[in-house]
Amino acid sequence: MRDHSPYIEWILSDEPLPEASQSALRNHLAKCVDCRKVAAGWESARQVLTDATSAAPRNGFPQRWKALAESRAKAPNRRQVWVTLAPPALAFV
User: Fold this and answer.
1) The 3-state secondary structure of the chain, one letter per residue
2) Domains of the chain: total
């Protein structure tokens, strides 16, 4: 079985490839169905990411976020209590 790892890395890389690597990749893609599928899938995913638009937050988002952060800072940290109580409780299991 052929090692596809350099070709997969080249397909997924955003760095420009040297001409020798580009040529090797083209030759490999001409023969390898699996790597052509990876290349097509990656190009499709890249296009979706490129075409995606960012959603603007709803009005009042910064205030809601700040209120949530303040409420969490004031609330007792239940996880710390669980971590403290868990080891003795697990001894009985």
Assistant:
1) CCCCHHHHHHHHCCCCCCHHHHHHHHHHHHHCHHHHHHHHHHHHHHHHHHHCCCCCCCCCHHHHHHHHHHHHHHCCCHHHHHHHHHHHHHCCC
2) 2
Range of the domain at 81: 66-90
Q: What integer pLDDT is reported at residue 1 of this predicted model?
A: 43
Instruction: Map tokens 């083209």 to a residue.
Output: 26
pLDDT per residue as tens digits for the range 30-89: 999 999 999 999 999 999 999 988 888 899 999 999 999 998 888 766 665 556 666 665
